[in-house]
Amino acid sequence: MKRSTRRRLTQAVLYAVLLGLVLLLALVADWDAIRANFFAPGGFDSAEAWKELFTVGVKNTLIYTAIAFFGGLALAVVLALMRLSPLGPYRWLATAYVELFRGLPALLVILFMAFGIPIAFQWTPPGGSVGAGVIGLVLIAGAYMAETLRAGIQAVPKGQTEAARSLGMSAGRTTVSIVLPQAFRIVIPPLTNEFVLLIKDTALLFVIGFLAEQRELTTLARDAVSSGPTAGTSTSYIQAAVLYLIITIPLTQLVSYLERRQRRSR
Amino acid sequence: MSTAAGQVPAIDIKDLHKYFGDNEVLKGIDFHVDDSQVVCVIGPSGSGKSTLLRCVNRLEEPTSGQIMVEGIDITDPETDLDQVRSRIGMVFQQFNLFPHMSVLQNLVIAQRHVKRRGKDEAVQVARRNLEKVGLADREGAYPAHLSGGQQQRVAIARALSMDPDMMLFDEPTSALDPELVGDVLEVMKDLASEGMTMMVVTHEMGFAREVGDKLVFMDGGVIVEEGDPAEVLANPQHRRTQSFLSKVL
């Protein structure tokens, strides 16, 4: 048999296997159960259900993500600069912080911030326990982004600092005007990734008690499972999943585009 | 010392030692540059010539010895290093322009923050210096869009915009394609003829002979030989100088 004939035959077999598996799944699947449990009436076909998912769920998810991201980023800048400090104690503190919060489950930190701290110190966080939970996300995001940012700062060529210092610019001015802008440019793709991770991590806030108008997407979907027209089915979970993907997939595509562009420019 | 009585040399280095770890790269350098003098430093790679240059504005920390710049001891911890550095222009082999800023911004930023100049004045000074290096029409360009020779001329203009008393050049043409070297050397020649004090680490023997007032040959962390460039190049006294020159000329 010729090599090209054999290759075509192999491909035909592979396609046939795939088609067979799909057909088998379609035949075996209980379509009635799927329709009843995942696509119940009052869900995908209900403008009202979508409206609430958008104006409450998606909105709050994005607000919590934005707070966690930008709060975390501010924290990360401080931590990254501390990790690169010539002063030992600053480096040790930052390293301890990063190791602590990267080593703990996000859920544990959120619970601790939402219940542990407020009860221990009689402290009412802004936004109630949700606010405390978001602060937990800020603390975690800061640890991860600090590492990313540190790598970015170290990737800026040493000659940049030398040029700035040789012009008489102070160490602080050099960091702010020369090093950080270039470091940020380098870490835009991994930071966007971090943003996507945070979108998904806001679902962990579900464990905190919410006021109705504070609910993020996952909590909202969970509530629709216990009450409302699609109660008792997972329809609202599927709807939430679609909404998550509508937000995250363009962002991950953007990341790979930015990464490709960065590779080209090097 | 050849300095006239009462006149302070632009750069005066006494018994300078520099270690990187256990490796002694400068082994007791005595060296001076007078006002308006052009001193070229040559030598094989690893001879310590770039380290010597970088010690003059303390990009490298000297291990011991004294470095006086215009009579100011820059190794004294009390010296305001940023202030001294703003008066010493430095040009690097790799240009080191700020890639996230336009040419004009590259020239303006240190003037604003170090010299505390107003925006209009800083821009005016920047434009004057861009004109001087023949790049007045490229002020809006970003470094990535310039050739190596243009980038190096911008780097020179950036240093000049601080109105420095002297200029240090660290192999300014070594990273350039051969056809771009001439433009940069031309700019440096103009500077020399205007009376700029210059210390140039270079492999351009033609430049050293034509423009230099003094040629210093370094090898193994010491100054082996120094003197009139034409003299040293044509008639090197020391064996190591002879061997080096026979390889590069």
UniProtKB/TrEMBL annotation, chain B:
<dbReference type="InterPro" id="IPR003593">
    <property type="entry name" value="AAA+_ATPase"/>
</dbReference>
<feature type="domain" description="ABC transporter">
    <location>
        <begin position="11"/>
        <end position="245"/>
    </location>
</feature>
<dbReference type="InterPro" id="IPR003439">
    <property type="entry name" value="ABC_transporter-like_ATP-bd"/>
</dbReference>
<keyword id="KW-0547">Nucleotide-binding</keyword>
<dbReference type="InterPro" id="IPR027417">
    <property type="entry name" value="P-loop_NTPase"/>
</dbReference>
<protein>
    <recommendedName>
        <fullName>ABC-type polar-amino-acid transporter</fullName>
        <ecNumber>7.4.2.1</ecNumber>
    </recommendedName>
</protein>
<keyword id="KW-0029">Amino-acid transport</keyword>
<keyword id="KW-0472">Membrane</keyword>
<dbReference type="GO" id="GO:0005524">
    <property type="term" value="F:ATP binding"/>
</dbReference>
<keyword id="KW-1003">Cell membrane</keyword>
<dbReference type="InterPro" id="IPR017871">
    <property type="entry name" value="ABC_transporter-like_CS"/>
</dbReference>
<keyword id="KW-0813">Transport</keyword>
<comment type="similarity">
    <text>Belongs to the ABC transporter superfamily.</text>
</comment>
<dbReference type="InterPro" id="IPR050086">
    <property type="entry name" value="MetN_ABC_transporter-like"/>
</dbReference>
<dbReference type="GO" id="GO:0005886">
    <property type="term" value="C:plasma membrane"/>
</dbReference>
<dbReference type="GO" id="GO:0015426">
    <property type="term" value="F:ATPase-coupled polar amino acid-transporter activity"/>
</dbReference>
<keyword id="KW-0067">ATP-binding</keyword>
<dbReference type="InterPro" id="IPR030679">
    <property type="entry name" value="ABC_ATPase_HisP-typ"/>
</dbReference>
<dbReference type="GO" id="GO:0016887">
    <property type="term" value="F:ATP hydrolysis activity"/>
</dbReference>
<dbReference type="Pfam" id="PF00005">
    <property type="entry name" value="ABC_tran"/>
</dbReference>
